[in-house]
């Protein structure tokens, strides 16, 4: 969801992010309708692309099963 583009969708998405302040850019891992963890702006901006990819991969490894 791009916050500046669709305010209704943004508001609906933010309902899943309880406990997290609005942050753009950000990535949220949602499992069973709940946010398990979130990678926020300070964990993305100023970091190498591979660092962000590794953070995302770590979340998938922690919470997701391979099918």
TrEMBL record:
Pfam families: Disulph_isomer (PF06491). It comes from the Bacteria. Belongs to the bacilliredoxin family. This is BrxA/BrxB family bacilliredoxin.
